[in-house]
Write a structure and sequence with these properties.
The protein has 306 residues and is of the alpha/beta class. The protein has 10 helices and 18 strands. The protein has 2 domains: 254 residues, 4-Layer Sandwich (Metallo-beta-lactamase, Chain A); 36 residues, no CATH class. Bound molecules: zinc ion (2 copies). Zinc phosphodiesterase, which has both exoribonuclease and endoribonuclease activities.
């Protein structure tokens, strides 16, 4: 799994940063991409990245502020013009359906693929057997959600040495053993796959926040995750101003990563007032509280590690 940042600015684009959009490349789990938010110009960012619109399987919108959704109608239409026929699922707060359907209708646009729109409520969103996603209500000026993604644990690899020791011949039954099933060999022996599996591989977990001021829900959402992606709209000195507008600061987000026992914090959604020269200071404020912090910039790629 990999996170690819397409836009990392809050509110307005700057020369260095486009407005918010993030890709989760599920590589290793399956050949698909999930997108989180789609600010204006996201399509253009995609053109400068390795992202393929046709591989988008799901889009999660955190809230309906323009810097998070104004790129959506264009992106949906381009996926169609590219000839995609694979279904796409869109999740977002109340109103996302009206926004998309109205935009498509008024512009006489149509899609070549099925678009399934789900208006989100806090709680479990889905579990497809590989990945589980839960929505958490955040505290912004409009209805806003964060998404916690949990990969199921995978069975460990078959211990071939142990199979050899017990003289278990290879054959089509290997698949059943890999899944922990029980088989009967030609010599009459009953073999249980579970006895030959290595330690299970722990699934990865991520918490991808929308805009929010500090809220108790955040602690549950980010508890023990491998990667937490959270906004840091303003620096520590502007805490009051940030919170008044439903946003968090560097230190508030870093304190959340620490308290939730997240392993890695990636900070994004940085106010347009900050230039490249301000980034070391913003990062230092975060690292003072949570050392394993990175500051996202456009086109940055981070592996998701357990
Ligand atoms: Zn925003
Ligand atoms: Zn917002």
């Amino acid at each position: 799994m990999e996170l690819k940042f397409l836009g990392t600015s809050a509110g307005v684009p700057t020369k260095e940063r486009n407005v918010t959009s993030l890709i989760l490349d599920l590589q290793g789990t399956r050949n698909a991409l999930w997108m989180f938010d789609c600010g204006e110009g996201t399509q253009h960012q995609i053109l400068h990245s390795s992202v393929k619109i046709s591989k988008l399987e799901k889009i999660f919108i955190t809230h309906l502020h323009g810097d998070h959704i104004f790129g959506l109608p264009g992106l949906l239409c381009s996926r169609s013009m590219g000839g995609s026929t694979d279904p796409l699922t869109l999740y977002g707060p109340t109103g996302i359906r009206q926004f998309v359907e109205t935009s498509l209708q008024l512009s006489s646009s149509f899609l070549t693929y099925p678009l399934d729109i789900t208006e989100v409520q806090a709680g479990p969103l889905f579990d497809d057997g590989e990945l589980k996603v839960t929505a958490y209500a955040l505290n912004h000026r409009v209805e806003c959600y964060g998404y916690r993604i949990e990969e199921h644990d995978k069975a460990g690899a078959l211990d071939t040495q142990k199979l050899d020791q017990d003289a278990i011949p290879r054959g089509p039954w290997m698949q059943a053993l890999k899944q922990g099933g029980t088989i009967t060999l030609e010599d009459g022996r009953t073999i249980c796959g579970k006895d030959y599996l290595g330690v299970p591989i722990r699934g990865k977990s991520l918490a991808i926040f929308g805009d929010t001021e500090p809220t108790p829900e955040a602690l549950k959402m980010a508890a023990n995750v491998d990667v937490m992606v959270h906004e840091i709209t303003l620096e520590d000195a502007f805490a009051e101003k940030a919170n008044e507008r439903g946003h968090s600061t560097t230190k508030q987000a870093a304190a959340l990563a620490r308290d939730a026992k997240a392993k890695h914090f990636i900070a994004t959604h940085i106010s347009g007032r900050y230039g490249v020269e301000d980034c070391p200071r913003l990062l230092a404020e975060c690292r003072e509280i949570f050392p394993n912090t990175d500051l996202a910039k456009d086109f940055a790629v981070f592996p998701v590690r357990t």
